[in-house]
Each structure stands twice: as C-alpha cells, then as structure tokens.
Amino acid sequence: MASQERVETVTKGTGFWRCPKPTTYTPGTCELLRGGDTLPLQCNPTSSQRVLPSKQPSSAIYLPPILAARSHLRPARRCQANGAYSREQFKPQATRDLEKEKRRLQNIFATGKEPEERKRKPHPVRQEDPAPKLDRFEELVKEIQERKEFLADMEALGQGRQYRGIILTEISQKLQEMEDIDHRRSEDLRKALATT
C-alpha cells in the first residue's frame, strides 16, 4: 500500500518559511538563454589545468632533514662516564623512636596488654566575661533616639517630608514593643511579690 501512495518531492526554497524568489539574470545571460546555442565541444584549458614542465629528477636521493641527520642517542660509554648509571647508596634511618618502642614492648610482655598513652588534657581556656547584655528595653530607647536624630538631619537637609512617615511608623512600633516589655515586667513583679 505504501508503494501505491504518491510521493511528492519538495524542491529547495519552498515551504512555509522559504518562499521561492524570482531569479534575476543579467542581460548577457538572458541573451545566451534565448539564443539556445549548444555548448562548445572543445574548450581551451584553464590556468589550473595547464601542464607545468616537469623538473628533472636529481641523481641523488633526497632525504628529509630528520632522517638525514645522525641520531641523538649517546653511546653507553659516554653515559657511564657522565655518571648516569651510578646509584646513591641506601642509608637506612630509624623512622621511629627505638627506646620508646622498646618500653612499649616491655609493658606488653609484662602486663599482657598495650599501655594506654597518657593524654594531656588541654588547659581550660579562660572565658572572659562577655560584654554585658543590653536590656531590650534599653536597646529600643537607643533605636528611637537614633531615628529621631535621623529625622532631624533629614529635615535640616530639606528631605524630612520624604522620611517623616516611615520614621514615625518605626518609632511607634518600637514604643509598642516597649509597652509590651513593660507590661510583662509588671506581671513578673506582681507574681514575685505575691509569692513572698
């Protein structure tokens, strides 16, 4: 069934995105196309097809410089004379403390188990008293003061109107938090007085 289906070929330059463009020819080409003359049977060779006169082969065989030069290998006698084959003599060195190893083995034979090494405890690091923590209430007082100073500076520069709403909102939030802290402290104080 597939062989019976009609197969259409799509030529180059057709399709949805490639619309065929009308070709334009020069007037000289149009004359040749209308004339309908046949192509010539013989034509003169082009510059790439011309035969160049061959060079006379030289009588000696030419070798590339890599093959013509003598090899770079040195003879064995020359290498031995330079000391290339002499080796450094091995000098064994003790890699561990032999006296310490001897004492360890004596303890193993005497007690039947390996002695535990004494580990020095690191000296306790003196902890300096951390900076005294500021009370949150005091922090809020400082923050409110900073905002008031900032607003005064901006008003002096003529920018106060732009920042006034923002700064006053922040100050009211800080005051609300201060009131909450004050209320909690009052409750704690009442409970402490009630228990005594």
Query: Gap between N and C termini, in Å?
Result: 106 Å
Percent strand equals under 5%
What overall geometry do the principal axes of the alpha carbons give?
A: flat
Count of DSSP-assigned helices: 6
Give the total of beta strands: 0
Residues in helices, as a percent range: 40-55%
* Largest sheet features: none
H/E series? HHHHHH
Class based on secondary structure composition and strand pairing = mainly alpha
Taking pLDDT < 50 over at least 5 consecutive residues as the criterion, the unreliable ranges are none
The Cα radius of gyration reads: 52 Å
Pfam families: UPF0193
InterPro entries: UPF0193
Biased composition (Basic and acidic residues): 113-132
Region (Disordered): 110-132
What does this structure look like?
- By secondary structure, the chain is mostly helical.
- It is flat and about 130 Å long.
- It has helices at 27-35, 65-68, 76-82, 98-111, 136-156, 160-195.
- Helix 5 (136-156) runs antiparallel to helix 6.
- The chain contains six helices and no strands.
- InterPro entries: UPF0193.
- Residues 110-132 are annotated as: Disordered.
- Residues 113-132 have a biased composition (Basic and acidic residues).
